[in-house]
Structure formats: structure tokens, C-alpha cells
Amino acid sequence: MEHSHRLIDRAQSCLVVIDVQQYFLDKLPLDQRGPLVERIAWLMQVARGLDIPIIATAEDIERDGPLVPSLIAELPDSSKVFDKMTFGLFGQGDIRAAVEASGRRDFVLVGLETDVCIAHSAIGLHEAGYRVTVIDDATASPPPHHDHGLRRMAAAGVMITSVKGVYYEWVRGLKTNAVIRAKLPQALPPGLTL
């Protein structure tokens, strides 16, 4: 499959929030947990402000717990959190149906863990013909596994960018930037500069 390097099209985008559960966050260094969740929440706010749909999953909710409350609060009212029982989300029928029903072709992935559920999901979506972008600073795995996952996905043809990068690809110009920034909190998440 040929890899396209064109900019991410917000009219074709869907944000996918994968398995941001306390169980997985607790595996990360303490100083990474809060900032990661804040960057993901901020991207969810941006997506909502730009009418970009959001799909959210949590792995084996009964065993590993729900999506963290601060991210549940950022979901549009009509959203559900899919109880994901496969590492790659496209391998589960109800999630695959939600991907297809979105009508979108550009999938932007954030969450946990980079080398397993993010990688399996990204590669599965890519193999199914979707354009997939993974956000480096809005995904994580315990070191050194984050970097392994990013390299694996890049080798498979998945695009890797940053929160800042996807933000500017979504807004594309000064007018949209001004409109969306007015809808967002003034303070940016820790470690993010625009």
C-alpha cells in the first residue's frame, strides 16, 4: 500500500482515544502521567471544536477499569466508550463498524500503549486502507517501549507527528486558529507550545 504524505484533512479526520485507563497510566513514570492525559484532553477539545468525531476505547473494562474520568468528560454527549477485547481495534466488530460508520478516512490515534494497542490499531487501520497518524507526545508506553512502537509503526507506513503538528494541520490557517483558540482554555497542557 502506498503511503501518502499529504497533510491531515480535518474534514476527513477522526480522533481515536485508545485505552487511557489508570491501569496503563500506572505503568508510566509518575511525571509523564498527568501531562499525557492533559494533552489528550486538549486534543479532544480541539476535535470537538472542529466537529471532528471521536472514537474512544478502554481495554477489558471489567478487569482494567474505565477510561479516566477527565477524558470521559471530554467526549461528546452521544459517545460511548467501546470495551475493547482485542489489541488492534479494527479486529473487533463493533469498533470496526464505528470506524466505517464515521465515514472518515484519516484516523489520528492517541493513548496507550504505543507498542501494543496503538501499534496494532494503527497498522490494522493502515492495512484496511485508512490514512493513520499517531501522535508521538499523546501516546505512551513504559520506556523504552514507546520508541520501539513508534519505529514499528513508521516502518509500516503510519505517519508520526506531534500534538502541535496535528493541531496546525487541522486548523490550516489564521482565521480557524483564532476561532478555535477562543474556544479553548488559555493555558496549554504542560510541555505544549504552539
From TrEMBL:
Signal peptide segment: none
Extract the Pfam families matched here.
Isochorismatase (PF00857)
Q: Which InterPro entries match?
A: Hydrolase_YcaC-like, Isochorismatase-like_dom, Isochorismatase-like_sf
What's the domain of life for this entry? Answer: Bacteria
**Where in the numbering of this chain does the Isochorismatase-like domain appear?**
13-163
Q: Name the chain's protein.
A: Isochorismatase family protein
Taxonomic lineage from the root: Bacteria, Pseudomonadati, Pseudomonadota, Alphaproteobacteria, Rhodospirillales
